[in-house]
Amino acid sequence: MSEEAPDFDEGIDQDDLDDEFEDEIGGEGNRIVGGRAKAVVEHCARSLCEEPDMIDVDLEERGRDEVFLLVHASPSDMGRLIGRRGRVIQAIRQVTRAAGALEGVKAGVDVAE
């Protein structure tokens, strides 16, 4: 009973199959440009606000390595996000720049009125 199973891959070059899969993934993969910076802004904004469900962050790509994030919040939370003399939004901007730098992206943040 030493019957061998038929080889269905006979005649198919394994290198051709590997090339197929490499083309689908691409060099960068499925990376979202500025994804980490957006996550940081969302986390900070939701932590500061009384109505965290009202926070919405729009990401706009400006070139290959630059993103701009616009935070939309309820009017009652605008003061909390901006802070006295703009100190809170400046701190959020610094943390966001650091998160963007980890990805090699310049990130800017502003609060929508």
CATH topology heading of the domain at 35-111: GMP Synthetase, Chain A, domain 3
Q: Can you tell me the overall shape?
A: elongated
Distance between the termini: 79 Å
Strand percent estimate: 15-25%
User: Which sheet architecture does the biggest sheet show?
Assistant: 3 strands, mixed
Count of DSSP H/I helices: 4
Major β-sheet strand ordering: 1-2-3
* Average pLDDT taken over every residue: 82
CA radius of gyration is 23 Å
What structural class results from the helix and strand content? alpha+beta
CATH architecture of the domain at 35-111: 2-Layer Sandwich
Would you report the number of β strands? 3
- Low-confidence spans: pLDDT under 50, at least 5 residues? 21-26
CATH superfamily of the domain at 35-111: K homology (KH) domain
The share of residues in helices is 40-55%
Folded structure, characterized:
By secondary structure, the protein is α+β, with helices and mostly antiparallel strands. It has a domain at 35-111: K homology (KH) domain (GMP Synthetase, Chain A, domain 3), CATH 3.30.300. The protein has four helices and three strands. The chain has helices at residues 14-25, 35-48, 78-82, 87-103, and strands spanning 56-61, 66-72, 106-111. Strands 1-2-3 form a three-stranded mixed beta sheet. A hairpin with a 4-residue loop joins strand 1 and strand 2 (66-72). Helix 2 (35-48) packs antiparallel against helix 4 (87-103). The chain is elongated, with a radius of gyration of 23 Å.
